[in-house]
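Example record

The entry below shows one chain as it appears in the dataset: sequence first, then structure tokens.
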Amino acid sequence: MARNRIIWFCLWVLSVVGISLRGGAVTYGFFTLLSLVPVLSLLYLLAVYMLFHIYQELEQRFVSVNEPVRYRFALVNEYPMQFVSIRVRFFSEFSSITELDDGTEYELKPHSRIEKETSLICKYRGEYEIGIREIEIQDFFRLFRFRYRNKEGIHAVVRPQLIETESLGAVVLSDAVRASERSRTEPDILSREYVPGDDPRLINWSQSARTGTLMTRILTGSDHQEIALLTDTFRTGTALADFLPAENKVLETVLAISYFFSRKQICAAEYHLSQALERLSVESTGTFEEFYQAVSEIRFSSLNTHRRLSESVMQRKDLLDSSMLFLILSVWDSETEVLVKTLERNGMPVVICLIGGAEAAAPDLSDHRHCELIRISPFQDLRKELGA
């Protein structure tokens, strides 16, 4: 484009020199034609901007992280003029589109359309724009380039990814599992996978032989302690790039831990701060979809400070009576440290799942006797952090 401008300018200067030295109808006509070229180019760009249409469609509005979904778009020219250079730029920070790139240049003949179909993958949970971000057009002479934001964007609602893990890092659950069943007295017909420390008398040998995995019967009773998951819903930062990765990994961690418990028939409940401290029960895998939907709709806010979270926790006897607590958060501060110490004084073991990059400083847990730390990167596969 710069080369074409230089060529045009040199020709225009030569036409001015020709007028000065010789004049004549041909020279003046050449000068007039060259002077009109940029005006005509700008009018052409204005016409393309007003007449060009772009349509894009996602197979489904609600998608999950890292789940390919069919995506298509169409460039449409409904008028008797040619669009010589159309380029589309895609949103790439939070989503990716396979087999397409921003460098492709499209030419649309009169009354024609170009359709493309491929797959789109969203990287983080949340609500944000995906697909075509902006459009770039050029004139016939390649003198001017004009970019403008796509007015027909796609607003996607992206749900967190559900990851299945076989462990929770180096955390030992045998004591917590026994505590959650402390007051149960009678074996149920349901069974779960054996956890080291379970009563050998409750092993279901017939089911163990069928499944190839050591199974133990579940004790029933009306009063029992649960393992609690406390989700931090405090939003740090205002830009999407600042909070989306961390919030996505917080909910991904909550789902992975909850799914681990539901598969092993271990009683657990999730708590998070909204208008008040809300509780979600982690049921069996058969009803886990309902729990997954509820977790996907958890909202983060700068108003959900750790001070509010700590005050709300202290008012919930059901949470304080839990046998163990998993605290999933993205920021460690003095308020969370006070909360953890209070929980420990009540005899509750605490596992902190801290979401943060390698540059984030690890909290000092030297004064915490019943506290474990699991560091989780917002950009790494959770299976590497918790165990495949």
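Notes for this example: The first strand starts at residue 53 and ends at 58. The chain has ten helices and 19 strands.
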